[in-house]
């Protein structure tokens, strides 16, 4: 099982994806997701220029050794570009190992701890009527847990709202599924935290009145509040029994969560922009969060995220892996194998990819009755159709950003 080919494949079916494909001398192939939304080519360059030469001739069976070698030998550690590149190698090696063993990856990780993975989808609307329709639509598609985002009176365009205007080059793709503007410069959105804090509790009250107490509801604050504002929001949402409040403060300052925690029992989730176990060291030890939001794709792969989640399990902290459309089907499959195997699985974010993406990445994972399953194919269970991928060249895309009314740039 010597790696004799390593290809970095960029394709843009509904959005940009970066995939590493490894081939061994005995003909096995493995795929890894290296997609970093809005900064894709930085990872392509890291992989092609610096990692591929190190992979050729290596024994594909030595996953832990490859991880430690790529991490430690670079000297420059951590960061989203490095960790997405290492994640792609790690995933591809697990894929190869599964194929060599004739087993799905979750079996190699210890076997299934459950029959399926509870997943949540994204309901959204400019106003309550549109939001209710979106919640119903998600329930009709089988979702048993739903993230709720709405517009805020007085603000033009906010992250996560499906009916926000899309860009020409994004034609046919819902804004909440793909907020990155293709083929242009970043779109400017507006923000006002006080209006948001006044409005959101009224939205959750309306949703609870309409849909009852059982439905698990989630909300994403997208790093926009100060610690005291986040504490206020958590407290005001307590009557509506959220499954979690996500990214309530900017992720760089993990200590901020101490203050939030002192004031509210609303469960907290964070970590979609974290990339190593060290980002979690303090907040796990001090029990400042309830869910780990990291994706396999951005956190060094299955090998490293499993270490994060094993550490978190000592404190009854569960997984809530990031799963927007910018995680490719390969990254989603890796998340599902890991989620099925670990004991402390919490919930999986799941937004369906578009038809073009599904034609490029043939998947064996399944979605039924609100639950995902990675399937029984050996390896990760996703294959990439190179001809199909070749139809969609890379298109530069930028995520939007926010300014306050006085023109100050604010967290997006
Ligand atoms: O690339 C940015 C998106 O992945 C992010 O905005 C999605 O916040 C997100 C979520 O919770 O899925
Ligand atoms: Mg989020």
UniProtKB/TrEMBL annotation:
Pfam families reported for this sequence: MR_MLE_C, MR_MLE_N
Domain of life: Bacteria
Domain Mandelate racemase/muconate lactonizing enzyme C-terminal: 128-267
Record's protein name: D-galactonate dehydratase family protein
Coiled-coil ranges (or none): none
GO terms, biological process: amino acid catabolic process; carbohydrate catabolic process
Gene3D superfamilies recorded: Enolase-like C-terminal domain (3.20.20.120), Enolase-like, N-terminal domain (3.30.390.10)
GO molecular function, one term: mannonate dehydratase activity
SUPFAM superfamilies: Enolase C-terminal domain-like (SSF51604), Enolase N-terminal domain-like (SSF54826)
InterPro entries with a match to the protein in the record: D-mannonate_dehydratase-like, DgoD-like, Enolase-like_C_sf, Enolase-like_N, Enolase_C-like, Mandel_Rmase/mucon_lact_enz_CS, Mandelate_racemase_C, Mandelate_racemase_N_dom
């Amino acid at each position: 099982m010597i790696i004799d080919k390593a290809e970095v494949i960029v394709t843009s079916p509904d959005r940009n994806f970066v995939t590493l494909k490894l081939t061994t001398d005995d003909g096995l192939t493995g795929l890894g997701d290296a997609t970093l939304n809005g900064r894709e080519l930085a990872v392509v360059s890291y992989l092609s220029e610096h990692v591929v030469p190190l992979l050729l001739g290596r024994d594909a069976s030595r996953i832990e050794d490859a991880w430690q070698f790529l991490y430690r030998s670079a000297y420059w550690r951590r960061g989203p570009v490095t960790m997405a590149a290492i994640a792609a190698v790690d995933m591809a090696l697990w894929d190869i190992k599964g194929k060599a063993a004739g087993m799905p990856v979750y079996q190699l990780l210890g076997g299934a701890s459950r029959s399926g993975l509870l997943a949540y989808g994204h309901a959204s609307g400019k106003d309550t009527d549109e939001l209710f329709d979106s919640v119903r639509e998600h329930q009709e598609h089988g979702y048993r847990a739903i993230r709720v985002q709405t517009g805020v009176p007085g603000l033009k365009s906010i992250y996560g709202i499906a009916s926000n205007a899309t860009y020409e080059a994004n034609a046919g793709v819902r804004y909440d599924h793909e907020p990155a503007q293709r083929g242009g410069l970043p779109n400017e959105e507006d923000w006002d935290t006080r209006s948001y804090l006044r409005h959101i509790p009224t939205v959750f009250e309306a949703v609870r009145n309409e849909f009852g107490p059982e439905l698990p509801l989630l909300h994403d604050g997208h790093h926009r509040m100060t610690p005291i504002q986040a504490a206020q929001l958590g407290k005001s949402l307590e009557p509506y029994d959220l499954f979690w409040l996500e990214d309530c403060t900017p992720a760089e300052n993990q200590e901020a969560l101490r203050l939030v925690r002192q004031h509210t029992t609303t469960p907290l989730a964070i970590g979609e922009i974290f990339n190593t176990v060290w980002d979690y060291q303090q907040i796990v030890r001090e029990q400042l969060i309830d869910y780990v939001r990291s994706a396999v794709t951005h956190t060094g792969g299955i090998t490293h995220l499993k270490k994060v989640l094993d550490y978190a399990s000592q404190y009854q902290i569960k997984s809530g892996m990031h799963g927007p459309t910018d995680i490719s089907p390969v990254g989603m499959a890796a998340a599902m194998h890991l989620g099925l195997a670990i004991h402390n699985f919490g919930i999986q974010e799941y937004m369906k990819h578009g038809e073009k993406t599904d034609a490029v990445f043939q998947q064996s994972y399944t979605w039924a009755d609100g639950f995902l399953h990675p399937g029984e194919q050996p390896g990760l269970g996703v294959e990439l159709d190179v001809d199909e991928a070749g139809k969609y060249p890379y298109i530069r895309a930028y995520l939007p950003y926010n300014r306050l009314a006085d023109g100050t740039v604010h967290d997006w």
